[in-house]
Amino acid sequence: MTASVKFACVFPGQGSQSIGMMKGYADFPVVRETFDEASSVLGQDFWTLVNDGSSDELNLTVNTQPLMLMAGIAVYRAWRSLGNVNPVLMAGHSLGEYTALVASGALAFSDALPLVRFRADVMQQAVPEGTGAMAAILGLDDEVVEALCDEITNSSCGELLEPANFNSPGQIVIAGHKSAVLRGMELARSKGAKRALMLPVSIPSHCSLMSLAADKLHKRLEPLMLQSPETPLLHNADAQRHENTEGIKKILIRQLCSPVRWTETVRSFASSGVTHVVECGPGKVLSGLNKRIDANLQSLALADSVALHHAADILL
User: Fold this and answer.
1) Is 94 considered catalytic here?
2) What is the Cα 279 distance to its own chain's centre?
């Protein structure tokens, strides 16, 4: 790697999963080994699930969150097997923040797996199914979406609507009570949104409806052993670094009820001198967002073995 090349690693969250998504990594034994390790910790055969399971089972939040964690770590380990060069920064989108913590050395893989399953469980319990919703708003400025969320919340009787993901300029996800989300979609269209799409999720993540889940996560995190990250990472809730382990726990609790500030995170990469962003995991969701945030950043999605070797030729 030349001195002028600096790369960051990012890890996807829910939404990148699909049946058969790990088949493209067949020539990396560490991928299957990582799944076997994780399956042993959780007492469930995730390799069979991801290759031969049903989409309904795969998309259950209590399965998806640990699955995306192990997939991200498996691909990161495959990447590291090609050359032991550290990224200068890391980040993960939503659930992917936990993957980044494992990759950075702050959180043990064996501790992270039951932790994210617990997180998924308390998130599902926090809001009765059918009560909450999320929608993607395309083509409006951040400030316009924030204002319409306030307008809907202030005009509703106890219902709320909040920005949940600042994914890229002109792509914001809103979350809250389902009826408030529907009204928010209508208002967004009236304000000139190109599209307003309901997302196929049952949990309104990253908004105040997750406060009960955040309280339970707080208690679960208290006794957990963390380390200071060996590689700095930027957190979703504030796009900042947190080196102190208590600070990391606090920001993870805050993450459940706060929007994912992905646009700020990627811009921070660029301002830190990062030239390439490596997406560790199946799919290319984050690479697509990153290109829209900063076209000068080179995005490399490690979506299969061919992509892994291609990225290694460039960076390692």
Assistant:
1) yes
2) 11
Nearest to 267 by CA among 102, 91, 141, 96: 91
What does the pLDDT look like over 142-152, one tens digit per residue? 999 999 999 99
The first and second tokens of residue 106, run together, are 């702050």
Q: List all residues 6 or more positions away from 101 whose beta carbon is below 8 Å from its beta carbon.
A: 92, 107, 112, 226, 229, 233, 248
For 166-175, give one letter per residue: b (16+ CB within 10 A) or e.
bbbebbbbbb
Q: Which long-range contacts (CB under 8 A, 24 or more apart) does 287-291 make?
A: 289/167, 289/168, 289/171, 289/262, 290/10, 290/168, 290/266
Against a cut of 0.85, is the pTM above it? yes
Write down the catalytic residue from 16, 168, 177, 206.
206
Q: Is 206 tagged catalytic?
A: yes
* 8 A C-beta contact, residue 208 and residue 132: no
Choose the catalytic residue: 16, 94, 104, 287.
94
